[in-house]
């Protein structure tokens, strides 16, 4: 490599061994919250809990603060994240780091020269435009800049092939060691206790609901909450508490050069650079060196699989792996072309250390399924996340609800289907594609399919169902007929499935369609207190079965104490204090955790069982679905099968729970039966439905149909950032029914009025459809954001849902929606319907 040579072995160990000392005499017997792990994440959680007023905060560190991954991190701080919700974490972190020295007296070595993501292809410029459209309603001072501006900010660049950049002026880098020490100083200042050389040897929950944390195999510390922030030891700590966490350390490398005269002579520090197609970051180190950190390809990168399966080697604390520059060569070659002075430099240090990843590279942050056991693990970008995640989890612990929506990080997105082979395959793919173009609707195939398969998975695959991944399940987004190109053709604009989805939409609108909804979360709530419990935890009336043959159904919402939408459930009363609950595929364990937590904390005598993997679900919908039902069940008539009721029926000898409702807005039913019988049921429905032109449809057509009907989707149109009143769900809220979670907050909102409300928008865009999170403009200002989007075949235009101020919610109001950084005219449509299915 031209002139690039190593001149030393580099770092290997900051402290090659550590000893577990005797238990400190000052260690208490009782705490409110115990945090396991003294890296940047753990210290931030301790700092924020103590600062927000919690007493009895104890942090336990196995070796010494920053051991593990924190001490060797490159320390990058970036506002950018492709997931808009994550920006709140990053924004808070950057603001915190700017004032932490004044608060604690500890210099944190925070540099803010800005950062530039470099585009070297037209599709990268589209990516930047896409991200700009999704940033403007957040606190995000980012902009697309020209090659000339890039050169002025970073004069050492070779500008050949650079088309533009995405610039964040407040980004930079920080010293991870100093940051962690500052957070620890702050934590102690506000009353937290920090103990080093305290290894956790056992964790178990006692009959009083407290966690007993055994330290150094002798002392037992009891606590209401335990936070696992143990970095690459997190899997082992999880095992102590009975949790099998999908985590695997990755060897991440970066190098630091010897001093470079050209860099030393610069008038100001260069921005942090991210060459996306070259898959590396580059920043200035000290006054005259460069630091370059590549993300190797899937084939070249290294996982620490043995660590995940056998545990971290004893004594490993502040050690590094042997470096391997050969793995970095393809990236370093591009870096030399980009920064010519880098090519003539020597290598002073190569850092190759473990960083722990989840399958999707997003951390797991929040409560686990075990009440009082919290997770803050899997941080591939722990330094920028540390400040924000500390505040986020501290508020959740103290207020018993998350401060804002971050479902992307919820530990409950993973379940028993997340095996270690899946974790390894997915982490390898995710790391290797770290800088790949983040297309909407992209499907990455590593580790798929999992063990979680519908009873008709193979059948749907043979019928060219184009699969999307939902919490371990494979579910067709659309079906490719002979004349239609299969597979997803990546684009930020309208793409190859458009005509196929229109065909499926027409089937449901004009005839009858069938869709596999087996990924739905399915729960049973039973017991003498089941009715009282559901009445307390949901905002709607609890349905009552009409008789032994006819069940009643209602749509109910679980609200947080502040009146936000935590979950949406379809509740069916089966009689005898038994209820069948259905939720979305992505919220199964999320909702189960909430139900079990509140049942235990409030002393309700109920049992809650998860039957998601045991039951399958098929749905038929369309104007001819009633005739099809009568053919399938000759003893039934649609006239006597009322909307929002259910019955147990037999179809070709298969026992089925049939519910009359449909997320399409058309006449329809959902059929639930044993998963082993789903294939037989599917074949019977298709055979009987031939005379009604039945055909399959996927989730993309379902999205169009539900939006045209005005149905909201949990996680997008309503979530922990919105109230049911803002989302227009008043019909499902019975404010005077009796005490329920969130009632007081809703009463206050009714009195004070709304600051935003959800409206449908028709958008005049020729080839770009809204996806959600795009900025909405009025009179030159950003006044809201979209939540969902599609192309409406009914209107023959893109359709979006958006939150806007109430005074702009009148039908006919003209607004603009930002798509690919271009403003398109949009018109508010008439008010939503508030029913959930066609009667």
Key phrases:
839 residues; alpha+beta; 11-stranded mixed sheet; 20 helices; 40 strands; disordered C terminus
Average residue pLDDT? 95
Spatial separation of the terminal alpha carbons: 71 Å
Unreliable segments (pLDDT under 50, ≥5 consecutive)? 1-20, 834-839
Helical segment tally? 20
User: Which percent range fits the helix content?
Assistant: 10-25%
* SS-based class: alpha+beta
Radius of gyration: 28 Å
Counted beta strands:
40
Biggest sheet: strands side by side, in what order?
29-25-28-27-26-31-32-33-30-24-34
Shape: globular
Largest sheet, in brief, is: 11 strands, mixed
Strand content: 25-35%
Which helices and strands, and how do they pair?
Elements: E1 5-6, E2 13-15, E3 30-36, H1 40-51, E4 57-60, E5 76-77, H2 87-104, E6 115-119, H3 122-133, E7 143-145, H4 147-153, E8 164-168, E9 172-173, H5 176-189, E10 193-195, E11 200-205, E12 211-215, E13 219-228, H6 234-240, E14 248-257, H7 261-264, E15 272-275, E16 280-285, E17 289-294, H8 305-310, E18 318-319, H9 329-338, H10 340-343, E19 346-357, E20 364-367, E21 373-377, H11 382-399, H12 420-432, H13 457-462, E22 465-470, E23 473-479, H14 498-510, E24 513-516, E25 521-526, H15 530-537, E26 551-559, E27 565-575, E28 578-583, H16 588-601, E29 607-610, E30 615-621, H17 625-632, E31 645-651, E32 654-659, E33 668-674, H18 678-688, E34 695-696, H19 699-709, H20 743-752, E35 757-763, E36 775-778, E37 781-792, E38 797-804, E39 814-819, E40 822-828
Parallel strand pairs: 1-19, 3-4, 3-13, 4-10, 6-15, 13-21, 24-34
Antiparallel strand pairs: 2-18, 5-9, 6-8, 7-8, 11-12, 12-13, 14-17, 14-19, 15-16, 16-17, 20-21, 22-23, 24-30, 25-28, 25-29, 26-27, 26-31, 27-28, 30-33, 31-32, 32-33, 35-38, 35-40, 36-37, 36-39, 37-38, 39-40
Helix pairs in contact: 1-5, 1-11, 2-5, 2-11, 14-19
């Amino acid at each position: 490599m031209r002139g690039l040579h190593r001149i030393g072995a580099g770092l290997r160990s900051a402290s090659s061994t550590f000893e577990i000392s005797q238990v400190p005499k000052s260690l208490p017997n009782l705490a409110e919250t115990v945090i396991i792990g003294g890296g940047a994440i753990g210290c931030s959680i301790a700092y924020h809990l103590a600062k927000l007023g919690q007493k009895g905060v104890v942090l336990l560190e196995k070796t010494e603060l920053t051991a593990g991954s924190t001490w060797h991190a490159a320390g990058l701080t970036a506002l950018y994240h492709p997931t808009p919700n994550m920006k709140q974490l990053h924004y808070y972190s950057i603001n915190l780091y700017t004032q932490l020295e004044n608060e604690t007296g500890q210099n944190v070595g925070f540099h803010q020269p800005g950062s530039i993501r470099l585009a070297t292809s037209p599709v990268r410029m589209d990516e930047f435009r896409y991200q700009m459209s999704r940033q403007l309603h957040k606190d995000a001072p980012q902009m697309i800049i020209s090659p000339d501006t890039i050169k002025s900010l970073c004069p050492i660049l070779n500008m050949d092939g650079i088309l533009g950049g995405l610039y964040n002026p407040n980004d930079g880098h920080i010293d991870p060691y100093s940051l962690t020490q500052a957070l620890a100083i702050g934590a102690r200042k506000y009353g937290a206790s920090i103990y080093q050389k305290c290894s956790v040897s056992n964790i178990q929950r006692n009959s009083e609901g407290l966690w007993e944390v055994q330290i150094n195999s002798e002392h037992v510390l009891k606590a209401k909450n335990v936070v696992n922030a143990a970095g690459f030891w997190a899997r082992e700590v999880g095992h102590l508490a009975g949790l099998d966490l999908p985590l695997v350390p990755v060897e991440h490398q970066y190098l630091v050069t010897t001093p470079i005269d050209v860099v030393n002579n610069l008038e100001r520090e260069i921005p942090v650079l991210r060459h996306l197609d070259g898959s590396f970051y580059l920043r200035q180190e000290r006054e005259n060196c460069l630091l370059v950190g590549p993300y190797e390809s899937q084939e070249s990168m290294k996982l620490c699989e043995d660590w995940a399966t056998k545990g971290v080697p004893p004594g490993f604390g502040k050690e590094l792996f042997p470096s391997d520059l050969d793995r970095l060569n393809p990236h370093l070659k591009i870096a030399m072309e980009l920064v010519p002075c880098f090519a003539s430099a020597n290598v002073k240090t190569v850092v190759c250390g473990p960083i722990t990843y989840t399958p999707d590279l997003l951390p797991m942050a929040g409560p686990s399924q075990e009440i009082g056991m919290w997770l803050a693990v899997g941080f591939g970008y722990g330094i920028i996340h540390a400040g924000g995640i500390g505040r986020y989890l501290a508020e959740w612990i103290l207020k018993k609800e998350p401060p804002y929506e971050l479902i992307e990080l919820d530990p409950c997105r993973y379940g028993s289907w997340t095996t270690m082979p899946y974790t390894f395959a997915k982490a390898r793919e995710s790391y290797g594609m770290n800088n790949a173009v983040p297309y909407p609707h992209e499907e990455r195939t590593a580790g798929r399919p999992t063990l979680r398969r519908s009873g008709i998975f193979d059948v749907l695959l043979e019928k060219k169902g184009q699969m999307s991944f939902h919490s371990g399940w494979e579910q067709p987004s659309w079906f490719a007929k002979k004349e239609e190109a299969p597979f997803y053709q990546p684009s930020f604009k309208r793409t190859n499935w458009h005509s196929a989805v229109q065909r499926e939409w027409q089937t449901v609108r004009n005839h009858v369609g069938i869709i596999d909804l087996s990924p739905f979360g399915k729960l049973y709530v039973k017991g003498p207190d089941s009715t009282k419990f559901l009445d307390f935890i949901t905002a709607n009336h609890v349905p009552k079965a009409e008789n032994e043959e006819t069940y009643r159904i209602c749509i109910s919402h679980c609200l947080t104490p502040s009146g936000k939408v935590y979950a949406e459930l379809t509740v069916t009363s089966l009689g005898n204090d038994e209820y069948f609950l259905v939720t979305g595929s992505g919220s199964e364990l999320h909702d189960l955790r909430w139900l079990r937590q509140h049942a235990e904390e409030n002393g309700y005598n109920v049992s809650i069982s998860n039957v998601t993997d045991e039951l399958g679900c098929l749905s038929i919908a369309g104007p001819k679905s009633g005739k099809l039902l009568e053919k399938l069940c000759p003893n039934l008539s649609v006239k006597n099968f009322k909307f929002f009721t259910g019955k147990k029926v037999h179809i070709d000898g298969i026992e089925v729970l049939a519910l009359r409702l449909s997320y399409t807005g058309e006449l329809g039913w959902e059929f639930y039966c044993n998963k082993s019988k789903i294939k037989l049921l599917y074949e019977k429905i298709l055979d009987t439905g031939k005379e009604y032109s039945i055909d399959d449809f996927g989730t993309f057509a379902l999205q169009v149909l539900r939006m045209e009907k005005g149905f909201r989707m949990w996680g997008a149109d309503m979530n922990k950032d919105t109230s049911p009143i803002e989302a227009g769900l008043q019909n499902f809220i019975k404010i005077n029914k009796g005490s329920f979670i969130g009632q007081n907050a809703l009463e206050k909102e009714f009195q004070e009025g709304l600051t935003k409300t959800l409206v449908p928008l028709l958008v005049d865009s020729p080839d770009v459809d809204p996806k959600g999170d795009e900025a909405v403009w009025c009179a030159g200002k950003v006044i809201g954001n979209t939540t969902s989007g599609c192309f409406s075949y009914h209107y023959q235009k893109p359709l979006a849902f958006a939150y806007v101020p109430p005074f702009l919610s009148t039908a006919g109001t003209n607004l603009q929606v930002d798509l690919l950084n271009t403003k398109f005219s949009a018109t508010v449509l008439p008010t939503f319907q508030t029913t959930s299915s066609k009667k």
